[in-house]
Prior knowledge:
By secondary structure, the chain is mainly α. It is built from 4 helices and no strands. It has one domain (3-129). 78% of the residues lie in helices and 0% in strands. Helix 1 (3-26) crosses helix 2 (35-67), helix 2 crosses helix 4 (105-129) and helix 3 packs antiparallel against helix 4.
Amino acid sequence: xxxxxxxxxxxxxxxxxxxxxxxxxxxxxxxxxxxxxxxxxxxxxxxxxxxxxxxxxxxxxxxxxxxxxxxxxxxxxxxxxxxxxxxxxxxxxxxxxxxxxxxxxxxxxxxxxxxxxxxxxxxxxxxxxxxxxx
Length: 134
């Protein structure tokens, strides 16, 4: 394994966790608790989901892309982002109290974007760090 690959495995979930934590923290009311504790607590779910997504989706996808000798970045970004969006959509569909047909654009933006943006950032950072196109 190259140093860039190891860096991608470590850094991408942390960046995704930071994006998710910053998004959620920006919507919270200020609390008098310890200032860094809330950010750290919000970082962990995004980092754990990001690391799991790397292991179960991005690594097999990267292996498949390199095995077929395709250029690395564009298929990895497109495939990773598509799978992440599909997972988020299925999660929202499975946990929603109402049918998705009754949703407005505001409902979609409030529920969908905070979960999609960290995943897309994860895919972009991972694809950028695994190396240049071949």
